[in-house]
Amino acid sequence: MTIAEWCLFGAVMLYLLTLAPTKALAPREFDNANPRDPRFYDRPVRKRALGAHINGIETFPFFAAAVLLAEFRNAPQDWIDGLALAFLVTRIAFVVAYIANRPTLRTVLWNIAMAFNIGIFFLPGFGVNGAVIATIVGLGFALVLWPLLSIGSARFGRND
Question: Does domain 3-155 have CATH number 1.10.3720.10?
């Protein structure tokens, strides 16, 4: 298996394991007979863990499609692997930022991960140069977005 294929597995495990600690740390409150009871997720940290979990499910299909398309179309495997690994590491940081209630950082990390994913997607059709351009544009967008979001957060009394 390639590194990128292991990253697909890692992305699935990440979104599955995002909720596990919230349930394990509250065995008296978590009802396994009713695992989707919304009242369990009323606490802010649990609500954020659920949000990170759902976001992982939402982002996985495009990541999987991009990796598989790039591999099936024989794009350079070292580039697929590198971008997939960057995506997974960024998604791990995203989950940490989400649970830690750092919305600006979380949004920037989401955009950075998406930039890596777009780079993978463009590899088979546009080659390494196209993937690099797409990734740089996406990273540039994420870095421009950060100060704009920080200004908005300060306006609303948030300090993140």
Answer: no
